Amino acid sequence: MSRAAVFLDRDGTLNRQVVREGKPYPPDRLEDFRLFEDVPAACRALHAAGYVLVVATNQPDVGRGTQAKETVEAMHAQLRHWIPQLARIEVCYAAGLDPAAKDARRKPEPGMLLDAARELKLDLSRSWMVGDRWRDIDCGRRAGVRTVFIDFGYTEELKTPPDFFASSFAEATRIVLAQR
């Protein structure tokens, strides 16, 4: 029997993002990698409700050569320590600089979600994507999951409307749990 999942963006969803001129960025150093306070309890609640938790994150700075892959992997090791309920962390390191060179795993493409669904035997029709960027919402839509957008008021606009809006991860979790 396939299980439902909640796919989670990383930066700006689970951990604090760095916002410069209205645009979000991932932290550069492990020392700056910090979860939002509500994330551990909310992840425990989602897991207790039977959801499989999967992180799906673009980390293009590795592909661009401006961040070491070892730094990102150290952040993910810390993330697994803080949130032991995570079943999987899917990462796309593609730089995304060439619009003509599509990578099936780089959000907004749904490859990371589809790969995890196949490997973990997940039911996408009962699953969710939670994120803070238009790429997260478009990725979720393309994978056939419901979406929750955490709105931080960035200067970028959504391309596709989400199913739900939230102001925090805790609120996004309440929405997912209320829709079960």
- For the biggest β-sheet, the strand order reads 5-4-1-6-7-8
Report the structural category.
alpha/beta
What fraction of residues sit in β-strands? Answer: 15-25%
Distance between the termini: 17 Å
Return the string of H and E elements. Answer: EEEHEHHEHEHEEH
Whole-number mean pLDDT: 96
- Quick one: biggest sheet? 6 strands, parallel
What's the shape?
A: globular
Short description:
With 180 residues, the chain is of the alpha/beta class.
List the helices and strands and how they pair.
Elements: E1 5-8, E2 18-20, E3 23-25, H1 39-48, E4 52-58, H2 60-64, H3 69-82, E5 86-92, H4 111-120, E6 128-131, H5 134-143, E7 146-150, E8 164-166, H6 169-178
Parallel strand pairs: 1-4, 1-6, 4-5, 6-7, 7-8
Antiparallel strand pairs: 2-3
Q: Mind explaining what this structure looks like?
A:
With 180 residues, the protein is α/β, with parallel strands linked by helices. The chain is 33% helix and 20% strand. It has a 6-stranded parallel sheet, with helices on both faces. Strands 2-3 form a two-stranded antiparallel ribbon. α1 runs parallel beside α6. The longest helix has 14 residues, at 69-82. The mean pLDDT is 96.
Characteristics:
180 residues; alpha/beta; six-stranded parallel beta sheet; two-stranded antiparallel ribbon; 6 helices
